[in-house]
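Example 703, ligand 1-deoxynojirimycin.
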Amino acid sequence: MNQENEARINHLLGQMTVDEKIGQLNQYFPRKSLNAGLLRQGLAGSVINASGALSGQGYSGSGNAEGCNHLQQLALEARLKIPLIFGRDVIHGYRTVFPIPLGQAAAFNPELAGQAAAVAAREASADGIKWTFAPMIDIARDPRWGRVAEGSGEDPFLGAQMAAALVRGFQGEELSAQDKLVACAKHFVGYGASEGGRDYDQGEISEPTLRDVYLPPYQAAVQAGVGTLMAAFIDLNGIPATANRHLLTDVLRGEYGFDGFVVSDWDSVKELVNHGIAEDEAHASLLALRAGVEMDMVSGVYLKTLAGSLRDGKISLEEIDEAVRRILRIKLRAGLFERPFTDITRAAREQLTPESRQLARKFARESMVLLKNDSDLLPLSGFGTVLIAGNFVHAGAELYGTWTADGRPEDVTPLDEALRQVAPPDVRLRFAESPDLALSFAQYADAVVLVLGEHPLRSGENANVSDLGLPPGQAELVAAMAALGKPLVLVVFAGRPLAIPRQVAQADAVLYAWHPGIEGAAALGEILFGLEAPSGRLPITFPRATGQVPVYYNQKNSGRPLSVDGEFRTRYVDLPTAPLFPFGYGLTYTRFRYDHLRLSAETLRGQLEISADLTNTGTRPGRELAQLYIRDLVGSLTRPVRELKDYQYVTLDPGETRRVRFKINEEQLAFTRADGTRGVEPGQFQVWIAPDSASGLPGEFRL
Ligand code: NOJ
């Protein structure tokens, strides 16, 4: 903590009236018209620069520096001249839209994600924003949930790495620099466990699972210095997250040492009444503030009720002061007192630069996952006429995905145009959006690429589905096209894993492109025509059917696992037990072989090295993601059948072999034990160096 800042906070607190203090806890949203008086009286600590009810589903006009400066001017007319902090959902880019977060995770490249976040921070801050409601770091095991698109998937290790990298990317070394944003890790916590994949619903998570699976990304975000967190909408284990003192205060502040502030989600303080845990708005405010929610996002109930509660002795001035203190601390750290206004000349220079587009292209390329490639159909070569067909043929802003309030439709090159620019000159491309046209054009094509999948409105906040199949009509098109017998590539754009076993069987090659952002179409072209090779891996398990959900790689073994003989084993009678594609899976344009796993010792004392030979056995250079998994064979609580502990990309020429080396230490084997403490338990461990979570070279060691 910075002593000078703390002294300034104390000085300010000494001058503030109760109303001014409560004003700092209020995040204001000008719903219909601007209430300038509220700002002039110092009754708002923050303004949310939101797109209203759209939840970032589509471009709705960005904030701009002049607009923010105007509101800031009003706030600085207040007695104590405390600046506002402008918050907005800058989720996966701003003008330069990067792949959706789930696609970003598929690149298994946190450093790149951090660079993209830094670009988003530069662009958004040029429009007056100083606070982003990102990163979304909720572990998700249920792809029906629309918000699976917004996070890093199912794995706590990858999730924690992404969380830390994104926080650092947004915030930089020096939060007060004009091109940085205060980050907000959300939604604390367990939001991904909403029952049935229904957003805003309830969920139950045991304490060990909460600590070992859902909390690690948050702990990593706090360690990376995140300035704020957002409380989740979920009712978790009977306590709405907005009112959960144990998690918000004991764990977050007590255990993790978080010294920033927590903002509620939209109206979630007031909604404590709907949850049936608060009698009225005053009670809701008390519960939320006491739990550790310092700022009320837009519901206005803190402003309405806290002064009365203070008068009635239901809350103390110390409690209010502590909340104000945390908000002022972040405002000071963010340099808002020194630089409350935004330089209006920045946006023209700093948004959508050629370099940021290049980074978006690279990220889109790295995010795409090749799921199947029979007879090396991809990259396409030797085909005179290629038909590109399906509902994404002319896609422009649809490539952005959910939560892209600031990605402008006119900035994106539509898919057909981008493919034309990238395709080799000797390839004739034909395009057909409607199924009828597609099927008739296909007769004259040498190969067909179907570009199908989900419209962005089908993922993101409250865009949940009960059926993980392709949207209506698309399965029929794949089947009809496959029946023609032409070489068939399926490209899927989606905000979630879709259950597409039949389409995977029908197509010769399948490339999963997520919603890849502003340069996604060109990146796709580079991969289809072999200018670049795909290297993304699945950050989440792909189910065979909706009914298989939840299905995730780090499950428990059960008493009757498939690996043990016998009739009565955990399974479905109408479906194979294994998922369609495991976590970590992905192909590229060459092949790799793993040999000679070696451990530096039989027993882990301090540290152990695990290594294996990796050989490129194909004919093209390529990039392989070698993954390190462990299994703790016996524990005081049952342990996952595998846990990802590390990974590294290795680039090899054809025929080249390299030794990949991983190190593992005791801390990496720790977990939440039966007595509730975190630590290791001596015993036998399995280890794999693997291309995905379902295969690999096995070894064993003792601890
Ligand atoms: C509600 C969403 O749950 C949250 O993620 C978002 O940041 C806020 N609305 C603000 O738009």
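Summary: The chain has 21 helices and 26 strands.
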